[in-house]
Amino acid sequence: MRKVFICLLFPFISFSQTEMLWSVPKNLENNLSQYECPLWGTYYSDFIKEEDKLSNEWMGIHSWVVKDINNDGYCDLFFGFFTSEQEPVPFKLYLYDPSEGKLLNRSNLISNNIGQSFNRKTVAADFNGDGLLDFINVSHPERQDLDTSYLDFVYSQDGKWIQETLSKPTRFWNNDPNKNMGYYHGVAVGDVDSDGDNDFVVSMWSNPEIGMQTYINDGKGNFNNFSAIKGLNINESFCNELFDFNEDGCIDMVYGEPNTFIAYGNCDGTFGPSYTDLTQYKIYGSSGSAYDFDLLDLDDDNDKDLVINHVTNGAWQLLFLENIGYDSANQVIFASRTEDVNNYIKDQGFYTDKNSRNWVPYIEFIDVNGDDKKDIIIQRPGDAQPNYNFYDPNWVLLKESSWKYNYQIYPISSEIYDLDASFIDDKLKLEWKNIKPKIHQCGSWGCDQSTSESLSEIVSWKIYYHGDKWADKNHNNLKHIIITDFDKEIIDSNPGNFTTKYSNEISLDNLEEYYIRIGYVDENNIESNLSDLLYIEKPKPLFTENVTFVENIYPNPTDDRLTINVKPGVEVKDLHFNDLSGKVIKPKSIDRVQNRLEVNVSNLNEGIYILEIVTDKEVNKIKVIIER
Predict the structure, then answer these.
(1) What does the pLDDT look like over 321-340, one tens digit per residue?
(2) pTM of the entire predicted model
(3) Could you give the CA distance from residue 433 to residue 140 in angstroms, rounded to a whole number?
(4) What is the dihedral of CA 344, 349, 350, 355, to 10 degrees?
(5) Is 254 helix (H, G, I), strand (E, B) or coil?
(6) By the 8 A CB rule, do 510 and 537 touch?
(7) Which residue among 176, 187, 324, 414 is least crowded, i.e. fewest CB within 10 A of its CB?
């Protein structure tokens, strides 16, 4: 009969399931990527509470910044809100604690934290040179009765942050040029004057006379602003981005509505008059907006291709432009691959089903499954059932090859919970549960669609463990094993709450204590975030003297049977128990299998005994407790 021994087993409920696919930032783009560690399998309620709305009727988030904010080597989180504009909502700052494996709310570190009422975009960079990240935030009035836009700088000082408004133009047109300032809609960061620090350029809408504005940094977080566009008629835009398109060492800018241009930089913060007109590649013509831009090598030919998130009322598509070289003026020549790419993913239901037909503001190219190919994800939490966000489809486009992507719905599972453990002989038995969502809820868009056919399957589980308390996969000397053969039982087949219980008996390296977290790997080789932390102590004998040949004894305490492991080659001559009065008691039976003794102690009463094991040369004495 196998014995189960449960010893000092505690799930650390203060340790929430880790919220990111990885916690160490990765440089993903030349343009100071704003989303370096994907938020995954988390819930908006992890970061947002009902009371955060204040007096607003609703709120959401356009721009999630996930970067190493406090320069400790781990990703952190910053965001602002867009709301129904009854009042501004303060910014949120979460700093990652590697000892707990989660993002902790540190918004109290921001003084004068008024926030914004309709944040459109946030970018982060170290503007004042102190090693910590600062934030440029643009907002604009969405309500027709409001007119003021805000450019807010949240800068670091002595390990904390301060909000300061740099500019607040109005959008209503009249004859006073000091008041006819349009409104802000986008912002991009880069070293536009090639002096080694970070500058930014703000997108202007509704006032082409003032137009796009460059803010030149003096290296200490002080800015001088002026018109960004030089010698071009297009001087306003919803959004913009900064890249060195022609690799001449000067940052260029892609922008423009209704036409879309690349205005080539002059290394002084101005752009133009040299330009490339991208308008011909737009699908929706003048009614569509170029909302987001990404520059990366999509076809492995060592040059940078361009992806544009093109949005119009009720529809959206990604535009894929292949870099095919440069003209005589060193300006990039593009060829459209949009039809090829989009037809391939449209055949899989992308853009048309209820999970992908609603536009998203920002995307990111990230290798989520470790195959050295950049996949496309939404730049926001991968949450199966969000509460507050308007842009609710949860999809991933996994790169198959050049210009081909595989459409998948993610995450495929909710959090891992009810993690439990017990020792059976010398193996550890683990049990846990998780929920695989078969109903994908589209929240504020009001859609409800079964996605059971398109969700990826779990193919293996990773068991991470260490002898010390840990929370992050980057913990020193963290060990793990992979199991592909596991027992599973469906305990709730309700499509909205499809729950599976898993179990397995595993062998781990011999440690006195185990701190364990687990995660799954699916058929696309995407590894989930980790479970809560579980602690269990390995059973060990209670020795009364120096023990020389007994290696282990368990379970102790026991009820009817005791297993004793002895060193190879040891010949046991006698085995008996002494009670506290000194009475010698023989066990009911002893069976030996190789170096293991199976001892039947069912004839012993409850109590404390000294077990004596005798060989030709010595006696080992061990305290044993009988409990029933």
Answers:
(1) 999 999 999 999 999 999 99
(2) 0.83
(3) 45
(4) -160
(5) strand
(6) no
(7) 176
